[in-house]
Amino acid sequence: MNTNVIDTDSIIISMEGSEELIPDVKVVSFKKDAKYFENYLLRENLSPATIRAYTTIVNKYFAESRVITKIGLLKWRNDIIEHYSPRGANQKIHAMNKYLTYINRKGLKLKSVKVQQKPFLENVVSFEDYQYFLNRLKADNDWTTYFLIKFIACTGARVSELVKFKVEDVKNGYMDLVGKGGKYRRLYIPTKLRKEALNWLEREQIDYGPIFTYRYEPMKSGGVNSRLKRSASRYPKIPLECIYPHSFRHMYAKKLISEGVDLMLLADLMGHSALEITRIYTRMTAREQRDIVDKLVTW
Hints:
By secondary structure, the chain is mainly alpha-helical. It has two domains: 10-108, DNA polymerase, domain 1; 127-296, Orthogonal Bundle (hpI Integrase, Chain A), CATH 1.10.443. It is 54% helix and 7% strand. The chain has helices spanning 30-43, 48-64, 70-83, 86-102, 127-139, 143-155, 159-162, 167-172, 191-203, 221-232, 245-258, 263-270, 275-279, 286-296, and strands at residues 10-13, 28-29, 67-68, 174-178, 184-188, 213-214, 217-218. A three-stranded mixed sheet has the order 2-1-3. A two-stranded antiparallel sheet has the order 4-5. It has a two-stranded antiparallel ribbon with strand order 6-7. Strand 6 and strand 7 (217-218) form a beta hairpin. It is globular and about 60 Å long. The termini are far apart.
């Protein structure tokens, strides 16, 4: 780590509310230290997207203040809570906490914002809409969008994982990943999807490498979302608010729960770090709750 650097970009770090230097303080320049911080995050097995986000957040903090004090950090926390959603605020807090850990100032770490889970899932595509969407895509020969959806809905892949599928994985019937915190995970490709995908790849003469490409380059996560929205907009019956990559991952989990899959197994398949995250899929969607109320409450 780049320490003991004093220049016009210096950051003063204090364990107390005072902004005066204390005997064991480390004075660093984030401009000069950014690359070392990125390498630290890389060693922590964070994804490239997370590393970029965390570095940007910390850099913005120091663009507004060169001083790290407990009082200053608490004021910053209050400010982001006021201006961002709980999830957005927590991302910024996690980024700063990572930096504080990196500079050996764990005592200054901030508390996350408690996120109250809703008692239902919102905007999750129904199995009926999923099947209808696939049938329309197949009829229109939009095979790329068809398989983008099927690979999420049949493997539970995150969109960042989806774009990593290669021809070799389809032939093997699975893709191995190392996720957050160095956790090993295997995405299984069901036999029916595997056979269907191999026939498609043969027709398209895709013999190796990524199966989802755009202009001869691996497709980006943002490109997947745009393509799904654009394709769905052709079919008025499909609720657009339910068409986004993670919606089909939600559907995958809910479908397995309905088939009686054990929560521990589902957590492994989904790549969840805690069972509580998986437990949300035992809840109904808002649409399912509405259907039950409409059916039962007739007085």
